[in-house]
Amino acid sequence: MKPRLPPLPEIQLDLVEDLSPEQPPGFLRVLRRRLRAIYADGTVSPAFVYDEVDRRAIDAVVIAAHFRRDGVPWVYLRSALRPPIVFRDPKRSPSVEIDPKGSIWELPAGLVEPGEQSLEGVRRSASRELSEELGFRSTPADFVELGPSAFVAPGFIAERHYFFAIEVEPEAVGEPELDGSPLEVGGVIATLPIDDAIQLCREGQIVDEKTEIGLRRLKELLA
Fold it and tell me: Which runs of E-coded beta strand occur in 70-172?
């Protein structure tokens, strides 16, 4: 039997006032709105302020590049230096010993640029990011969708992740083009069997959520 959920509640949000502060151009901006919730029975909540983060390129692609070695699926991971993790305040962490001290392992990923905000454009984004992050050349048609897109942190940003798989030939790899960011310089590429990668997720050695989702979806696809 197909799994079912109850209907979602019919709650609407009414924009009372836009309180977004003026801010200089940057990678992110804060949106601040005064809202009211309108419930199914017609009652209305008191007004409340809600902040969210916005970005010019709001969505991202996540790429599970894979190949077979002796019949076993292997995947590519890339190290990523994430400043919010580096500067995470240990006093706010319930388990300091599990916090990464620097780079973390991720599936290759990148932003969907404003000119790519279409279904075909998302595939072009995946092709570009594969070249930048791993050094493989591809066409948009080479990618296989890994299930539906998903919101990464809907409590504060409307970013969607689009998951793709692509089978590559390790011998065909070139030099990653990178995107010019200082954070990508010195990055490391690793390959390992997909079962090992998923086990490292279980053990907390791979801590990136989108990477675990992509790995598990790829495992299902290849099963």
Answer: 72-81, 103-106, 109-111, 144-145, 150-151, 160-167
Please give the Cα distance from 212 to 161 (Å, whole number): 13
- Reading the chain (223 residues) residue by residue, the pLDDT tens digits are 889 999 999 999 999 999 999 988 889 999 999 999 999 999 999 999 999 999 999 999 999 999 999 999 999 999 999 999 999 988 888 887 788 888 999 999 999 999 998 999 999 999 999 999 999 999 999 999 999 999 999 999 999 999 999 999 999 999 898 887 898 888 999 999 999 999 999 999 999 999 999 999 999 999 9
Which of 195, 176, 222 lies closest to 78, judged by CA? 176
Query: Cβ distance 163 to 217 under 8 Å?
Result: yes
Question: pTM score, two decimals?
Answer: 0.93
Residue 115 near residue 121, CB atoms below 8 Å: yes
Structural contact between residues 149 and 162, judged by C-beta atoms closer than 8 angstroms: yes
Strand locations in 82-208 (E): 103-106, 109-111, 144-145, 150-151, 160-167, 189-193
**Domains of the chain, CATH where assigned:** 12-55 (no CATH), 60-222 (3.90.79.10)
CA–CA separation, 148 vs 130, rounded Å? 20
